[in-house]
Design a protein that fits this description.
about 325 residues, alpha/beta, Rossmann fold, CBS-domain, 2 domains, 4-stranded mixed β-sheet, about 15% strand
């Protein structure tokens, strides 16, 4: 049987060649950004509507990802398939929107109806293509021209380098818009509450047990009653409060073991650890988990500015939510 692999590069060598070629393409692109890039950012920031993204084939797949990234980072955006647009979805694109169309050649025929719709209703078009003189780019309000660099595949035809450049350009748009909007982690969690990312950005308030679950006792409570409260609440701690309801100390299971001799002859204030570690409601859950691991404690009280307890966060709450 004929061995068709004679003289061919190893898979590892091909992989290195592809990655190096695409990496170099990105560096070339970064050194010469499209001249309309800043204008595109300002146009998107000023729109009252949404950023509608469209593209066919591999450009469409990249467009889906760009739309999802923009939507989760503060820029309302969605993807419209060009063929579906021609069959009724043009109604989703309104005069208050901006349309970002992706076509490596700039001659994707399926985009024709969407281009005509935008021109008819004076909807701004941001075009992404490597050909500045193409149909798409001539119709575009702003042009984000990709460098005309070879694809990374051996036949020079499969979208590889071009899709990597387009994806990077989409990320650049999203991040530039984020920074212009002063987008913060708490904003990201509003749009991305699920998964590990959402869990990492959760605040203590979002995971805590509220006031009705708090294991609190007055400073003068006999230790026999303190143990009953700790057992009933199940957090392994009790918070000790003063006459105004402010937290002054915490009693843990470890405190009980360390002061076992004569324990029942004491009241809560005798056994409590003074000035315990606490957190605010805005403390990120990931930070709270780090504190608990560092201090080797199982729970943290969450206090208001006046040191009155708002809730309690157990280490298991963080782990169940995927905070790690």
């Amino acid at each position: 049987m004929l061995n068709t692999n004679l003289g061919k590069l190893s898979p590892d060598a091909v992989a290195r060649r592809v990655i190096e070629l695409e990496a170099q393409s990105l560096l070339t692109f970064a050194a010469d950004l499209p001249e309309d890039f800043t204008a595109a950012i300002n146009l998107i920031l000023g729109t009252k509507g949404r950023l509608v993204i469209s593209g066919m084939g591999k450009s469409g797949h990249i467009g889906h990802k760009i739309a999802a990234t923009l939507a989760s980072t503060g820029t309302p955006s969605f993807f419209v398939h060009p063929a579906e647009a021609s069959h009724g979805d043009l109604g989703m694109v309104t005069p208050e929107d901006i349309c970002l169309m992706i076509s490596n050649s700039g001659e994707t025929s399926e985009l024709g109806d969407l281009i005509a719709h935008c021109l008819r209703f004076s909807i701004p078009i941001i075009g992404i293509s490597k050909r500045r003189d193409s149909t798409l780019m001539r119709a575009a309000t702003l042009r984000l021209t990709l460098p005309d660099l070879p694809e990374a595949c051996s036949i020079g035809m499969a979208p590889t380098t071009s899709t990597t450049l387009t994806l990077a350009l989409g990320d650049a748009l999203a991040v530039a818009l984020m920074e212009q909007r002063s987008f913060k982690p708490e904003h990201f969690r509003t749009y991305h509450p699920g998964g590990k990312l959402g869990a990492r950005l959760a605040s203590a308030m979002q995971l805590m047990h509220g006031p009705e679950a708090l294991p609190l006792v007055p400073a003068t409570t006999p230790m026999a009653e303190v143990i009953l409260v700790m057992t009933a609440r199940g957090f392994g701690v009790a918070g000790v409060t003063d006459a105004e309801g402010r937290l002054t100390g915490v009693i843990s299971d470890g405190d009980l073991r360390r002061k076992m001799i004569g324990l029942m002859d004491h009241v809560a204030s005798d056994v409590a650890t003074r000035d315990p570690v606490t957190i605010s409601a805005e403390t990120p859950a990931a930070e709270a988990l780090a504190i608990m691991n560092q201090r080797k404690i199982g729970a943290l009280f969450i206090l208001a500015d006046d040191r009155k307890p708002l809730g309690i966060l157990h280490i298991h709450d963080c782990l169940r939510a995927g905070v790690a």
